[in-house]
Amino acid sequence: MKGDKEVIRALNKVLGQSLIAINQYFLHARIARHWGLEALNENFYKQSIAEMKWSDDLIARILLLDGLPNLQDYGKMFIGEDVPEIIDCNLRLEKQKFAIITDAITLCETQSDYVSRQLLVTLKDGNEEYQDWLETQEDLIESIGVERYIQSQVTEDDAP
């Protein structure tokens, strides 16, 4: 099935953001695990896997539209050096992704590609959910302090 070139280009742009997210969240998961923050490790790792699944869906859609998935056009990852910075970096990426996804949704609507639009809406919903979680973590850090927040991210099994 021959797809619209603009839609394929927009899907590839979203795919690029998702590929950045896979790597950024995976690295942040492993940093958190290294620091003994198993709860953060688990969350970041699960989000990395979710991004991988969404990337798989985008690749399948691009191929169905007779496009070529672009797995080479990586943008910049935002890597944090402490817990608040990691959360801020992930939130920055989610906000960046949100703008790109919503632009792609609008394009799909104008091109009457409602299947691609639905796929993007699913990604946008996941993006919004994760963005809400990250904003909640920032609020928690602000209200209880970074030290208590970090203590809350150490599971009982990890505690000395």
From TrEMBL:
Protein name in the entry: Bacterioferritin
Pfam families: Ferritin (PF00210)
Natural source organism: Psychrobacter namhaensis
Keywords: Heme, Iron, Iron storage, Metal-binding, Oxidoreductase
Residues in the signal sequence: none
EC numbers: 1.16.3.1
Cofactor(s) this protein requires: heme b
Entry-linked PANTHER family: BACTERIOFERRITIN
